[in-house]
Amino acid sequence: MDPSKPTLVIVGTGWAGWTLSQELEEPVRRLSLSPSVQKYQVEVKSIDTKAKTIKCTPAIGSNGDARRPTFRGVDAHDFEVSYDILVLAPGSETNTFGTPGVLEHCYTMKSVKDARKLRERMLDCFELASLPICSEKQKRDLLHFAIVGGGPTGVELAAEIDELIHGHLSHLYHSLKDYVSISVYDIAPKLLGPFDEELSAYAMEKFNRRNVNTRMGRHIESFQQGSMKIKEDGEVGFGICIWATGNKASQLVEDLDVRKSEGGMKRILTDKHLRVLQTPNKQQKENDEKSDPIPGVYALGDAADIMGSELPTTAEVAVQKAKWLAKHLQETSEMSISTEDVSERSNAFHYEQKPLVAYIGRHDGVVEGKGDWTGAGAWLAWRSGNLEWTRIQLM
C-alpha cells in the first residue's frame, strides 16, 4: 500500500460497506485486481478517533466464527490499524428480546453462509423423516418449517421455502408431501406491517391458499431443541425455526463514544453529509442541538441514522447512502481539499423513496408506492431489483 496516499478504512461488508467499496473501485476479496486494497477478516473491538486507530481481533472462518484462532507457529493476537478516513458500516445483530433459546435453537439469515446452512438442514429434515424409524408425529414435526417475523424478510423466506418444497423437494420425497407445513408467526395482527392494509390482506390470503399458515397475534415464550412454547398454542414442534424479527446494535456501536439515537435500536447519529457526530454536551442534549462532526469519520447502513431525518434499516437506504458517500469521497480526492471542506460545499445526502416490494412466492408479489399493485407484475418488479443488487454484489 502507498504510504503517501490517505488510508480509507471501511468497517463492514454488508450492503453499505460492499456498495461503497464497489463504487470506489475497491473490490473486496479481488485483491489481485486492486493492489491498493487490503482486506482483514477481524472483529473491530474499539476505535480511537483521536489517534485515528482501530483495534482488531482476528476472526477466521468463512463467517468469522473463530475469534483469535490458534495455528501452529502463528499467534493470532490483537493488532491496530491506522486510518485517515473511517467509514463505519458494521450493521446490526439479532435481537432476541430476551426470549430463551433463540440463539441456541433458531436459524438467522444474516449471510450467504446462513442460507447454505438452512438449505442443508432442510434436506436433513426430509432425509430423516423419510426413514421408517420416524412416527407420524415425528414426521410432521420434522417437516414443520417455522418463521418468527411477519415483515418483508419473514414473508420472503416463507415464499422461498414454499417454492423449494413444492417445486423440488416434494417430487424427490413424494411420500412426505402431506406432512409438510410452513408457518409464519408474529405478535402483530397482520403480515407486512409497513404495507397498506389491502396488500397485507392479499399476501395473507395467498399464503393461506397455499397452506402457508399465518399465525398472527402470537407470543413466543421460549425455545427448546425441536420445539417452541407459544402462549396461545402451547408447545409446537418444528424441524427448523428461523428467527426473522428484530435487530439490535452491535457491541462496537454500544461502546463507541459518539452521539447515538435514543429509544429503539441505538444507531450512530450523523449529519446530512453522513459525518459521525460527537457525543453532545449537556446543553446540546437538552436543546436537541446538533453536535460537531468527528473529523474524517462517516457512518451508514443499519448502524447509522441522520439526526432529525430518521430512515428505515433497509438495503435500499444503505445502498443510496453508500453511492452518495463514494461520490463525495471521490470529490475530496479530486479536489485535494479536506473532507470537512467538501462536506460544506457539496450537496447533502437526500434519500429517494422507492416503492416497497415484497415477494410472496410462485411468481407473485406486492408493491406499494406510486400506485399499489400485486401479481406477476409485482414479482417482476421484485425480481428486477434483486437481480440488479445481485449484479452489484458479484461485480
Automatic annotation (TrEMBL):
GO cellular component: mitochondrion
Keyword tRNA-binding listed: no
Claim: NAD is one of the keywords in the record: yes
Gene Ontology MF terms in the entry: NADH dehydrogenase activity
Domain FAD/NAD(P)-binding: 40-322
Domain of life: Eukaryota
Alphabetical UniProt keywords: FAD, Flavoprotein, NAD, Oxidoreductase
InterPro entries: FAD/NAD-bd_sf (IPR036188), FAD/NAD-binding_dom (IPR023753), NDH-2 (IPR045024)
Similarity comment text for this entry: Belongs to the NADH dehydrogenase family.
PANTHER family xrefs: NADH DEHYDROGENASE, NADH DEHYDROGENASE (EUROFUNG)
Name of the protein described by the UniProt record: Putative NADH dehydrogenase
Originating organism: Glarea lozoyensis (strain ATCC 74030 / MF5533)
